[in-house]
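Reading a protein record of the kind used here takes only a little practice. The integers have meaning only within a learned vocabulary of local backbone shapes. With that in mind, consider the following protein and its fold in token form:
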Amino acid sequence: MIPQAPSKAQAHLRPRTKFVLLGSLYTSQFLPAAFFFQALPIFLRQQGASLQVIGLMGLLTLPWILKFLWAPLVDRYGSRKWGHYKSWIVVTQFLLALTLIACASIDTFQGNEGLLFSGVFLVVTMAATQDIATDAIAVRLLAPHERGWGNGIQSAARAVGGLLGGGVMLLVLNQLGWQVSVWFLAGGVLLALLPLLWYREAERPASRMRINRTFSNSSPVSNYFETLLSFGRQPQALIWLFFILIYATGSSMAATMFRPLLVDLGLSMADIGWMTGIVGSSAAIIGSLLAGGFIQPLGRQRSLILFGLLQAIAVAALTLPAIGIRDPLILYAVSTGEVFARSVASTALFTVMMDKSRPETAGSDYTLQSSVYVLGHQVGVPALSGFIAAALGYTGVFIIGFVVCLAGAWLATKVICEPTPLPGIER
């Protein structure tokens, strides 16, 4: 699994143009997700929802895990007139906005939890499909030596979405209510499409056409499964996927229970919005951009190791408020530190994931890795974190998260992370 060069038709684009385009797309897909998965748990907890219910909200992210199942369809079908992947993004973004408008009509949570969760599920499905196409564009657009900064921009854009969706929108929700908040979300999603309107997507790579000719005598079903399974046949692919799962799990299971801990400590919705949504997301933006600048000189593997150790230290610090330390300065420090560390580690991980994706099946390759990342980041152990907290307390969750983070940093020494330079391409 080696990095691939971007298509010649897109090589002329300036890095700034590439980063603005990718930044807007990643922000728009994470904006509603941040609102539903960061702001909504706090809102539900204040209404008396149990830790188990809040933990099970992670199951609503199943489309992010299962999106690899329809990623080959995104790779295979698309509009030549609009642009292969661009057409997918435009359609899914409009459908996402329409779903948000429908969710805005749900003005109360009493007795409507099932309807609300159904709406959130549709929103996540649209965002996950958009993500497949966006990741494919990113793999083809960025040269290997641009991917550190490119994934720094990606992580920073996700953090911007978190700042707006999980911080600013939490304050809007507190002041203006549910309906106005969701209308703002729909408008933000559509606004982020503007940079895409000026982007002219290049033709799919020739290697893709060769694959189509190779499978020309095969059924669509055979082509589908060949695309779906081909990534796993590459050397060390399964070991790499296991590493992604472990590397993403530790900090996420800790972060899932940190917000309910803040509620139990007596912080208001506005206080939590400022701490985790605005200040925390700002730290994530800074961390992502710093990581983007350091990945190239440090190297992929060293970055994963060092950032993984930093992630473990940050998770261990969360035990301070869990054992009763409630000083606001300490709360802000440990909250900000955890988000910062998670962002730098994720940026390094995303960079290597992009290196291992082939441009002819960019959507499928990156999406498979991304699905495993979401399995560790949102579901898996994080979905069970509420039950772990109920049995062992918040301190128990944070200690387990610390151990898992250490395991991820150790595994980073065992996997192949450094890309093989291509002729004529600076790494």
The chain has one domain: 11-411.
